[in-house]
Amino acid sequence: MSKTIAILLARLIFGAVFAMAMSFKFMDMQSTASYIAAAGFPFPLFLAWVAAFFELGLTLAFLTGAFFSEASVLAGIYVVFLAFAFHGPSHWSGNQAEFGFFIDHFTFLAGLLFAAVHGPGDTLVVKARSPLMAR
Fold first, then answer.
1. What rounded mean pLDDT belongs to the chain?
2. Residues 6+ apart with CB under 8 A from 27
3. What pLDDT, in 10s, does the model give residues 80-97?
4. Which partner for 22 in 46, 55, 63, 116 could form a disulfide, CB atoms 3.0-4.6 Å apart?
5. 3-to-8, 20, 40, 106, 120 alpha-carbon distances in Å
6. At 40, is the secondary structure helix, strand, or coil?
7. Which of 110, 70, 56, 105 is nearest to 85 (CA)?
8. pLDDT at residue 129 tops 70
9. 57-to-5, 10, 42, 91, 132 alpha-carbon distances in Å
10. How far are the Cα atoms of 11, 56, 75, 126, 133 from residue 122, in angstroms, in the given order?
11. pLDDT in tens, 16-45
12. Phi, psi of 69, deg, nearest 5
């Protein structure tokens, strides 16, 4: 029972983190686009929309358990990309807190990799898997 509760709690946390990120993007897409532009990326508004819908997909996967392992791997790749793009070494000299933000992404990555390997548990799971992640 405690394993089931821990897994469900972890799924809720993963889902909530991406739901919050997605919500902030949808509530102020222009600010997100400005942040992306400040990092030097082209087509910032387009990328902001892509990020918001990607985070919606991750949220749904974590909350339902559908494509859970695949979503965990993709989220891990996304989190590492965000770490380097928005908090990487070029940001450290201007603000030492950026180093902490950078490191935090790797802690999140560790949890996502653990989730990818162990799956969504057996409770409250929509049975949907990619053949790429077949066990």
1. 92
2. none
3. 999 999 999 988 888 889
4. 55
5. 9, 26, 43, 24, 11
6. coil
7. 105
8. no
9. 23, 17, 23, 29, 18
10. 12, 23, 21, 10, 17
11. 999 999 999 999 999 999 999 999 999 999
12. -65, -40
pLDDT at 50: 98
What b/e string do you get for 56-67 counting C-beta neighbours within 10 Å, with b at 16 or more? bbbbbbbbbbbb
As a whole number of angstroms, the distance between CA 51 and CA 131 comes to 25
**What is the rounded CA–CA span in Å between residue 65 and residue 22?**
18
Q: Residue 70 has which token pair?
A: 């695949």
Residues 6+ apart with CB under 8 A from 22: 52, 55, 56, 59
Any idea which residue has 């990120």 for tokens?
21
Give pTM, 2 decimals.
0.88
